[in-house]
Amino acid sequence: MGYFRPGATVLRREVLHGRPWVVTPSRVVVDEPGLLAVFLVPGTRFGYPPHPWPHEKQLAGNATWRGHGKLQLHRPDDGYSVDLYWEGPERRFNGWYLNLQDPYRRTELGFDTLDHELDYWAPADGPWSERDREDFERQVVEGKYSPELAERIRRQGKEIEAMLTDGTTWWDPAWAAWEPDPDWPVPVLPDGWEDYPQP
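Given the sequence above, the corresponding structure tokens read:
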């Protein structure tokens, strides 16, 4: 499959147990051999296909993305994305959120992945911390992740901890000053998104 042009709308699908779980339209910032960067525009509406495992955002009534949006950096084969957050009326950079997930798989309309619950937060002005360990381990017991996948997730977490501790992060700190194109409209789910072929 070819690369997506900057500004294009792509569908980021989380696929759980072989079925789409949540679908998020996102704007492409960069798509090249070593980096896929997409932006979740404020006000973007999530799509929740019928699924036997209801999404936690769906259960919480969270239908749209709030705040300044989220920039997500992906490298091929990495089991995580690096998500950037901003806050306040002056859009101050808040930090880097390492979101453990399946390595992305390209589709005709975007890419598929699956959030792994376990995450790491590296604030702009403080030490890094682990997030959601208890929720991750609970979901392993409940069957969301197989024992084999759970062990891969734990290994990925250890690699991230070593990287953050050693200060050997790979992403360009200049991304903290990135700003979205003000002419980008909020992307929407296309007609028939629920019927898009299964992975």
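The two ends are 15 Å apart (CA to CA). Try to locate this feature in the token string yourself.
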